[in-house]
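User: My instructor asked us to take a sequence, write out its structure as tokens, and then describe one feature of it. I'm not sure where to start. Here is the sequence I was given:
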Amino acid sequence: MTDDVRVRVTAARQVAERVRELVLAPVNGTPLPGWTPGAHVDVVLADDLVRSYSLCSAPGADTWRIAVLEEVDGRGGSRHVHHTVAVGDELVTSVPRNNFELVLGDRPVLLVSGGIGVTPLLPMAAAADAAGADWRMLHLARSEEAAAYVDELAAYGDRVIRHVDTDGGPIDLAATLDRLGAADADVYACGPTPLLGALEEYAASRPGTRLVVERFAGDGDAVREGDHAFVVEIADGTEVQVAADQTVLEALSAAGIRVLSSCQEGVCGTCETAVIEGEPDHRDHVLSEEERASGEMMMPCVSRCRGARIVLDL
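Assistant: Let's start with the prediction itself. The structure tokens for your sequence are:
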């Protein structure tokens, strides 16, 4: 990981059911790198265990804060945070990256959080409020026990609208969004895939809605029926065969070529790699349309090659 940041865990607490918060301070006294609302960092939890977490503290604070939902059936990162990481531990992170940038303008802003999706939206709420923007938040959770940062959000009064499924059942999302003015607003959303899918359907039916989403999971579309095999070449000339039912990341790892990765679903950007030659078949949720069209970068965890060969800067 380039531009490593060394941090120490100075506090830890449960902020909701299965959600643990860590406060991270710089080890050497050097101020932490700056960041903007919506940013995340890659955290090295152990050898070959790197995960991306949204920063949910206030930009400009002298510490960082992350909050992690324990995924019982996950790949081990959240379990490590909940059951192994302790106050006093030193960790290595990347510098903050932002694929979910808040842009404040003349339009109203609606923040929509589902479950642990509240984390990147907390600093957005703080920034929007400090700027005097016309903003509101829809804070959704399965139950009161699962709702994180309720007390913190209560400071914003009626700008934050809360709903828990155990209180009257699932929300009528479209009707609620209409009532909150989403049809003519910039909507920033983070949460589970079904929520984001429903928001995309809503935005498709409301031309005035500008929807920006942050995903925790991909669409499982890294390998598709009809995919073909191809060759990946790295900068030193080494060639690796990628089978039709294999991702680039899997093939490189099997060949002993290490690529830093986290989500392995094309949503975090950790494995972003420069393309020297060849045309990528983009399947990520990180790059913009302009970045995809340039063909200069790709996410080897999910993206492939349209031709027979692609050369990567590894």
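For the description part of your assignment, you could build on this observation: The chain has three domains: 5-93, 109-215, 230-312. Try explaining in your own words what that tells you about the chain.
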